[in-house]
Amino acid sequence: MSIEFLNNDYLLAWNLLFKPSFCEEVQSLKEKLWQNYPKQYMKMEKENVEILKYSDDFIPDDDTIYTYIFDTDIFKKLKKETDKHRRFLMKYWDEHQKQINKELKNIIRFNIKDTYHILVVHPSLDTVEFMGSNPKRNIAWGKTNDSDDGLKALMRIIYTLVKYEIGTHQKENKEIVASIIDLAITNELHTKLVNVSQYNEGFKNLRLLKRQLYPYWLMYLGADREELVSYMMRDQIPFDFEKYPIEKELRKVDLYGFIDFCCKNQKYIIRLDKIDLI
User: Fold this and answer.
1) How far is CA 247 from CA 1, 110, 220, 221, 262, in A?
2) Measured between alpha carbons, how far is residue 50 from residues 40, 60, 130, 178 in Å?
3) In whole angstroms, what is the distance from residue 142 CA to residue 127 CA?
4) For the chain: N or C, fewer Cβ within 10 A?
């Protein structure tokens, strides 16, 4: 898997106009443009789709507002900060990409051959956008908590990329799919990288669902009955392992196969009203 971290002036300008204002200067700029160019402003509302689709090849039908924004002091300031953030993310990727690719392949068991383009916008915009049908694999990215921990930021990005790869597979079971990707990336991949369990991380709304998938997830990772105990101790997630027959076939499938297994058997696996706590 290859990732390129890029800037795009049009995407940054669009997000400043249509995402919630995070400072008074941005709000003032939006109000001024709305007062002076209301028709052009309204026509730009869906241009983010075209920018994501064509990125560097994007040419606006009317560049009046873009030209105005590019020349403002606030845009120049935010563009500089955005590029700094891009370099911050790229630094962590450059340092860890070899190990990430090795561990990721072992976990998901399929190759991600395409190059993904992360079009970095200002982190204060707190946004992630992508289109599943985009052949350029472009993703708009700028999250407020990225700078708290660069490696966790990479895990969130890779979670998004794997979600992109899975696409509409088992789309009628979105929560199961999201939980499994969270187990794979937020939990297991991050654990492999830092050698300390990260199974307390992830989406809070998926915690109970992941808790029920967890014993089968360990079987997918190749754990036998004795190893289940070691994993439980590592992750501090206890369950009565004697109640679970070992599904040896799970260690032979890829992430798609594990998703299919969990969806097919969800009636028996997922019983959120009967969490098995010991």
Assistant:
1) 30, 20, 8, 11, 12
2) 16, 9, 11, 27
3) 5
4) C
Tokens of 217: 């997830």
* Count of alpha carbons within 13 angstroms of residue 161, beta-carbon side: 26
Give the whole-angstrom CA distance, residue 40 versus residue 62: 7
The answer to whether the CB of 55 falls within 8 A of the CB of 119 is yes
Give kind and range of the element (H or E) at residue 64: helix 64-70
Render pLDDT for 165-189 as a digit per residue (tens, 0 to 9).
999 999 999 999 999 999 999 999 9
Q: Residue 273's pLDDT is what?
A: 55
The order of strands in the sheet holding 115-120 is 2-7, 115-120, 138-142, 127-130
Dist CA 223 CA 242 (whole Å): 14
In the three-class reduction of DSSP (H, G, I as helix; E, B as strand; rest coil), residue 237 is classed as: coil
Q: Are 116 and 161 in contact (CB under 8 A)?
A: yes
Whole-structure pTM value: 0.92
| Bridge pairing between strands 115-120 and 138-142 | parallel
183-202 tens-digit pLDDT: 999 999 999 999 999 999 99
Q: Which tokens is 150 given?
A: 């660069």
Range scoring the smallest mean pLDDT among 99-113, 227-241, 264-278: 264-278
Contact, 262 vs 216, CB < 8 A?
Answer: yes
